[in-house]
Design goal:
The protein is mainly beta. The protein folds into 2 domains: 37 residues, no CATH class; 104 residues, Rieske [2Fe-2S] iron-sulphur domain (Rieske Iron-sulfur Protein, 3-layer Sandwich), CATH 2.102.10. The chain has a 4-stranded antiparallel sheet, with no helix packed on it. The protein has a 3-stranded antiparallel sheet with strand order 3-12-11, with no helix packed on it. Strand 4 and strand 5 form a beta hairpin. The chain is globular. It starts with 9 loop residues before the first strand and ends with a strand. Bound molecules: FE2/S2 (inorganic) cluster. FE2/S2 (inorganic) cluster binds next to loops.
Length: 148
């Protein structure tokens, strides 16, 4: 175990099981060098190859009965549940087509609700102010991965 020398003590806050936080001071001579720290135990699953989701495209998927879709725009991939907040039905009428004519907003084909691609927030239509459910996603080694 490595120890830092000549650095000031640090304060560490830890949550208790009851939701309270405890803070304590650790002298510099006693704390280890921490190079990585995470509390995220989310398991990521491969959705598709990025090759199958080219820039500017959208694609729908059925994950064991749960419909989702992915949007690849401006170098970023966003994945949402395919479930319009207006009536709780899938957004698309034509397979793999989730964007409006401008290609800048997600559109529900049923009543025309428009959603921001970055956040899924509805900015026009019968569910204005509501949002699509966004899934945690990442692109690693040419694969789009999501948390289920
Ligand atoms: S079902 Fe999507 S806008 Fe009505």
């Amino acid at each position: 175990m490595n120890f830092l020398c000549g650095t000031p003590p640090i304060t560490v806050a830890c949550p208790s099981p009851e939701g309270h936080f405890f803070a304590f001071l650790i002298p510099a001579s006693r704390y280890p060098v921490v190079t990585g720290f995470t509390t995220d135990y989310t398991v990521m699953h491969t959705l598709c190859s990025l090759h199958d989701l080219p820039e500017g495209s959208t694609k729908g998927f059925d994950l064991d009965g749960t419909p989702v879709f992915a949007v690849h725009l401006a170098g970023k991939v966003h994945v949402y549940r395919n479930h319009c907040p207006h009536l709780g039905i899938p957004l698309e009428w034509v397979p793999d087509q989730f964007l409006d004519v401008t290609g800048t907003l997600i559109q529900c084909a049923s009543h025309g609700a428009l959603f921001l691609i970055e956040s899924g927030r509805c900015v026009a239509g019968p569910c204005t102010g509501q949002s699509l459910k966004k899934l945690l996603s990442e692109v690693v080694d040419g694969e789009v991965r999501i948390a289920l």
